[in-house]
Amino acid sequence: MKLRFTGLGGQIVLSMVVATIASVVLTIVGLYVFYGIVVRTAPELLSTSTQWMPTRLEWSVIVGLCIAAGVITVIVARRLARRIVAPLVSVARAARRIADGDLVARAEAGDRSLLEAAMLVDDFNLLAERLDAASQAVTRWNAAIAHELRTPVTILSGRLQGLADGVFHPNPPLLRSLVAQVEALTRLIEDLRTVSLFDGGRLDARLQPTDLAEEIRGVVRLMLPGMEAVGFRIETQLDEGQCDVDAARVRQALMALMENAQRHARPCTVRVRLTLDRMLARIDVIDDGPGLPDDFIPYAFEPFRRYMEVDRPTKGSGLGLAVVLAIAQVHGGTASYATVGGGACFSMILQRSSGSTKRREKQL
User: Fold this and answer.
1) pLDDT: is 233 or 44 the higher one?
2) How many other C-beta atoms are found inside a 10 Å radius of the C-beta of residue 326?
3) In the chain, what's the furthest Cα-to-Cα distance?
4) In whole numbers, what is the pLDDT of the chain averaged over residues?
5) What's the whole-model pTM score?
6) C-alpha span between 87 and 1 (Å, rounded)
7) Which of 195, 207, 200 is nearest to 358 (CA)?
8) Quick one: which of 281, 229, 294, 289 has its CA closest to 254?
9) In a designed cystine with 331, which of 101, 200, 317, 350 is the match (CB 3.0 to 4.6 A)?
10) Which residues 6+ apart lie within 8 Å of 67 measured at CB?
11) What percentage of residues in the chain have a pLDDT greater than 70?
C-alpha cells in the first residue's frame, strides 16, 4: 500500500507520525544516555533488584523526557495548526468584507500544500468573483433597461400630452405612430423577459411536432411589407419536414434575425434558408453586409451589446441576438455568425427531435 502525505488529511497524519516517532526516539535515547552515565558513575542511585518502583531520580528523568516529548508535539501541532487556520481566517475576513459591501475582497491560500484548504480558498474566491460580476451585471442591466425604456416612454408621454392639450389632433398617422411605440415597448419587454428567464434557468420550450418551413413562411409574410418598404427583398430556400420545436419561440427568434438584417444591412435580397438533416434543423438569415466588425463578433450574442456604425445612429436594443441564442439553446442548439461572400450570415441551430431537447431543458 502506497502512502501519500498530500492534502490536509495527509499532513495531519504525517505531523502526528513525526511527533510520535520523535517522542519515542527522544525517550529511548534519553533513557539509554541516563542509564549509561549513571551505571558508570553512580550505580547506587538506581533501584535495586528487589525494588520494583523507580527511584526519585529515575522518576525525574522519565518526567523530564515526557515534558520534552510534549514540547516536540506542541511545536509540530502548532506549526500544522497555523498552516490550517491561516487560510480559514483569510476566508472569514474576506467574507466579512464582502458582507460589508466590498465585493473585490479575496482570500489568500498561503501554503498550497494543504490541498483542501487551498481548494476552499479558490472556491470562495470564485464565488466572490461571480458575485462581483453579477452585481456589475445588475447595474449594467438596470442602466440599459432604463435607457431602452426612456425613448418610447418619452415619445408616448409627449404625444399623449400634446393630444390632451390640443396641440396635436388625433389622426391616423399619429395614432399609428403611437401604436408603433407601444409595439416597440411590447417587443422590448418580451425580449427582456426571454433573456431574464434564460439567465435564471427558467426559460421553457413547449415542444410540438411543427412544420418549420410553414412557420418560416408565416414570419416572412409578416415581415415582407415593412422590409419591402425600405428596399429589401426576401428569398426563401426551405427544406420540408417535421421538427419538435416551440413554434412561438422560433418565430420570435426568426423575427429578431430579420429585424436585425433590416436595421443593419444595406437594402438587398435577404435569403432565409432552412436546412434539415436527421438530427438538426438549421435556419440561416443571410444579407449582403456590411456584417459585423471582427472585434465585435465574440460579443454579438451578449445582451445589450451594440456597435457604432460609421455615419449611422445606433439602432435596436441590443437584445435581439441574445434572444436568438437563448431560444436556440433551450432547444438544445446554438446560434452563430459567419461572413459569407462579404455579407452576414446569422444562423440558429435546433435539435429536431424532442428527446435530446427535453434532457437539455432539465439542465437549465
Assistant:
1) 233
2) 26
3) 127
4) 78
5) 0.58
6) 31
7) 207
8) 281
9) 350
10) none
11) 81
